[in-house]
Design brief:
The protein contains twelve helices and ten strands. It is α/β, with parallel strands linked by helices. It folds into three domains: about 5-100, Helix Hairpins, CATH 1.10.287.70; about 105-225, Rossmann fold (3-Layer(aba) Sandwich); about 240-325, Regulator of K+ conductance, C-terminal domain (Alpha-Beta Plaits), CATH 3.30.70.1450. The radius of gyration is 38 Å and the shape is elongated.
Length: about 325
């Protein structure tokens, strides 16, 4: 089957060629040019005002029949190309939508991300990096288009709607992250999702401190406050810059820092002052003095050099900073 564009092009060329041949033919039958053009128009377009050119001979009549058939045929062929183009576009759109729906229907143990704003985009990027299957729900067509361009599965609609959550496969999902900037919407989504899947792990975003309790009561397993995390991050950059630099050297260490906080373990830094008895000593001497309450995981020399997992024999100098790992309060 020819492509719609090719059909339109061929039909248009044939139609224009028919008009030119028809006007020339009537002119050869001793019909003035303007009259011949008028004759062709009322013949091809079926206006039917009568014959203004002499068509009394069998040749003239056969020519007129040719003009009618060729004109109608080429016009119908061109219009058919336009109809095919529209129909194929709609059919392709329907098939593409069906393919996306089928893809989501086949998902098992996936994550549903409600909201594709700044936090949702970061979350989706991390899930894609770790090859975790997920579906993004959002109402904004522009955001979903950008998500689809990255190869993400998307579901358009309001995440507070049960039907939208079901279309995203909430009954087969293992985790749902609701990261909308509206706390009330996050509470409602959490409540709805918990009712649809009691075994679901729900991670919810809460902007206000008072929202955390409501989200937990609604069924959230974890509540994350972006403002609180940002504030703590900025405070740590001021109070523990060397520790943050050590932990920021890779994504794995960022995740390690989050896990350590959950088990009441702290990464801290100790600066060696000029008059410290530890000056001239070694990493082993420091750990002995600590009586096993911490371990040294890194050393930042005063010249800025970072040594990860320093050997016990490494000497300590004034203005060195030792990164240690231990329990809170030790």
């Amino acid at each position: 089957m020819q492509s719609p564009l090719r059909r339109i092009l061929v039909g248009t060329v044939f139609f224009v060629g028919t008009l030119i041949i028809a006007v020339t033919g009537y002119a050869l039958l001793d019909c003035p040019f303007i009259t011949a053009t008028y004759m062709v128009i009322i013949t091809v377009f079926g206006v039917g005002y009568g014959e203004v050119c002499p068509v009394e001979t069998p040749t003239a009549r056969m020519f007129t029949v040719f003009v009618i058939i060729a004109g109608y045929g080429s016009a119908a062929y061109t219009v058919g190309g336009f109809i095919q183009m529209v129909a194929e576009g709609e059919i392709k759109q329907v098939l593409e939508q069906r393919r996306k729906t089928k893809d989501i229907e086949n998902l098992q143990q996936h994550t549903i991300v409600c909201g594709y704003g700044r936090i949702g985009q970061v979350l989706a990027h991390k899930l894609a990096e770790t090859q975790q299957p997920f579906v993004v729900i959002d109402q904004d067509v522009g955001r979903l288009t950008s998500a689809e361009e990255l190869g993400y599965r998307v579901c358009q609609g309001n995440a507070t709607d049960e039907q939208v959550l079901e279309a995203a496969g909430i009954g087969r999902a293992t985790c749902l992250a609701t990261v909308l900037p509206d706390d009330a919407a996050n509470v409602f989504i959490t409540l709805t999702a918990r009712g649809l899947n009691p075994k679901l792990t729900i991670v919810a975003r809460g902007e206000l401190p008072s929202t955390e309790k409501k989200l937990l009561l609604a069924g959230a397993n974890h509540v994350v406050s972006p403002a609180s995390i940002s504030g703590m991050r900025m405070a740590n950059l001021i109070t523990h810059p060397n520790t943050i630099q050590f932990l920021d050297q890779g994504d794995d260490r960022n995740r390690l820092n989050e896990l350590l906080a959950q088990i009441d373990v702290q990464v801290d830094e100790l600066k060696i002052p000029l008059n410290s008895p530890l000056v001239g000593g070694t990493i082993a001497d420091l750990e002995v003095r600590g009586k096993g309450t911490f371990i040294v995981v890194a050393l930042r020399k005063r010249d800025g050099e970072f040594i990860i997992h320093p050997d016990h024999s490494v000497p300590l100098a004034p203005d060195d900073t030792v990164i240690v790992l231990g329990h809170h309060g030790d």
